[in-house]
Amino acid sequence: MKVFFKHMVSGYVGSADDMIYYYDPRVGRILARRNPHTKATEKNHAFGRTVQNLMDLKPSRFFIDDLLSYAERSYAAGMFNGMRPVWTNLYMKIMFAMARQDPHIDLLTLTRAEIVNQDLPCRSVARAVAAGLLPEVRNWHQLTAEM
Asked: What's the whole-number mean pLDDT along residues 93-98?
């Protein structure tokens, strides 16, 4: 939701009164959302460890640039319900879709060496699209930077 301040506090970013306020440079405004209150469970911790392992793989800058390019193209095509995806969400979408396709892949222990040795489709955005992990966008075959 858009935020309007009465007393010239237009630069406020943070949390107050169960709301989180943040600046979104794409829309050039301060937005607000409710602070989610979730209980910590073992499933939450396992998911957090999995995501941390995937981020520890440290994708290359060129791979990230391809994800950003894919995000722009998918937004222009009206995919993802009109919301602009960020590269980290697309990266996680690729990895979890790959794990659903092949149940032998354990994302909690996945390493770069396994990705290369098993020739997994997450090595590039073009391979991920070809494997059906992401929907096709205009000129997706050009996004060939290796992870």
From this structure: 96
